[in-house]
From TrEMBL:
The chain crosses the membrane at residues 376-394. The keyword Transmembrane applies. Coiled coil: none annotated. InterPro entries: SQ_cyclase_C (IPR032696), Terpenoid_cyclase/PrenylTrfase (IPR008930). Keywords: Membrane, Metal-binding, Signal, Transmembrane, Transmembrane helix. This is Squalene cyclase C-terminal domain-containing protein.
Length: 402
């Protein structure tokens, strides 16, 4: 998710912070940029304000929280009159114009967040209409309107469609759907990187395996957005040949590629230019979600175990989008984000912005039977303490400094 868009970032402006999605060309972020009230995180929001806010709100709703009004209002205030979103608008009261760098990734992420929070149907509909209006003839989407389609951008739009109940297969341009686009980026099994998805073809039409794009494509091919749970195990562990793979085959072949990629170490490696030889925590978190959604439970749990052991410092340094990614990874494998390697992802995320609320009825339901209800899956930083014949919940919600 947040670093799922590395390839687009490289194509546009080079190396960005790990929490940012793909971005369009523009000036380097200013270290003096102020962080508006209601926005999560302390870092410059120039390139990831809407993205990190959207991930935060989705993660909070997945946990059963009701995001703070100020946080939701900040996000809705970023929308342009035509329904689109830019990565960040410092003066949202000003009208969007031709110079406003709106993009599909921010718009699709905001759709998922506003749909999850509820009560924003008009804003969601306008944003969805805008996305449909900028769909490319191959059925996919690029980062900016008119730019060539890529796996990552197409996948986040599929996620927005699926999250709002629309059928991505029915959203077509010149007779092609986003699933048709994903199939063209799926590398045949008998080629180098077989099963993986490419970010997009190079100038000669060649496809190169991209784990970042593969994680995005697997989840999208399964018709999932940011939130996914463990799916049905695939029929085969290895890549299965297909002349024109169906969405399910794209997902299963991509899942096989990812499972092999994390089989030894439990994580992906960073491929950012200039980066030291180190794990890629963000894309590994995305891979956990993709593997779980594709029913590859063992591989997903192995990668999550690595994150639980090693990703805490990365999340603390990166900020809200990273915490949200890890929470969604925990959700995908059925783990408890309130106890992530001895820390609470939930408390850490909520401390970075306006405090959300949990309805009393939901708290009582959780406390009474200890089960996770659909739409109310949460841990709120609570650890289960075993007593002699008695279990009780001990609140560990404490504000943490980022």
């Amino acid at each position: 998710m947040n670093v799922r868009r590395n390839a687009a970032a490289l194509a546009a402006i080079g190396v960005l912070a790990a929490a940012a999605p793909a971005v369009a060309a523009g000036p380097s972020p200013s270290p003096k940029a102020s962080v508006p009230a209601g926005l999560y995180g302390k870092s410059d929001p120039t390139y990831d304000g809407v993205w990190r806010q959207s991930l935060t709100l989705v993660a909070q709703r997945t946990l059963g929280y009701h995001p703070a009004t100020a946080a939701v209002d900040w996000l809705t205030g970023q929308q342009c009159a035509n329904g689109s979103f830019a990565a960040f608008r410092a003066t949202p009261a000003a009208s969007c114009d031709a110079k406003t760098m709106v993009d599909t990734n921010s718009t699709a992420a905001a759709i998922q967040a506003l749909h999850a929070t509820g009560g924003h149907d008009a804003a969601v509909t306008k944003a969805m209409d805008w996305l449909k209006s900028v769909q490319n003839k191959d059925g996919g989407w690029g980062y900016n309107p008119g730019s060539p389609s890529d796996t990552n951008s197409t996948s986040v739009v599929i996620g927005a469609l699926a999250a709002t109940g629309a059928d991505p297969a029915g959203v077509r341009k010149d007779g092609k759907s986003p699933y048709d686009a994903l199939a063209t980026w799926s590398i045949p099994c008998d080629q180098d990187g077989g099963g993986a998805l490419a970010y997009q073809p190079d100038k000669k039409g060649k496809l190169a395996a991209n784990a970042d794009a593969t994680a995005a494509g697997v989840t999208a091919a399964l018709g999932k957005g940011f939130v996914a749970q463990t799916g049905k195990a695939p029929a085969a562990d290895a890549c299965a040949k297909a002349g024109r793979p169906t969405p399910a085959q794209v997902a299963d072949n991509g899942g096989a590629y990812l499972a092999a990629a994390v089989a030894k170490s439990g994580h992906l490696m960073s491929v950012m230019p200039g980066a030291t030889d180190q794990p890629d925590y963000g894309n590994t978190a995305d891979t956990v979600v993709a593997l779980a959604a594709d029913g590859r439970t063992a591989a997903a749990k192995k990668a999550y175990a690595f994150l639980e052991k090693s990703a805490g410092p990365w999340a603390a340094q990166t900020g809200p989008a990273a915490y949200a990614q890890l929470i969604l990874a925990a959700h995908a494998v059925g783990a408890q984000p309130g106890d992530f390697g001895g820390t609470s992802l939930v408390t850490s995320l909520n401390a970075l912005g306006p405090e959300p609320r949990m309805q009393a009825a939901e708290k009582q339901a959780k406390a009474s039977d200890g089960t996770s209800h659909a739409g109310v899956w949460w841990s709120v930083g609570i650890c289960l303490v075993a007593g002699i014949g008695i279990g009780f919940l001990l609140s560990t919600r404490k504000k943490q400094q980022s």
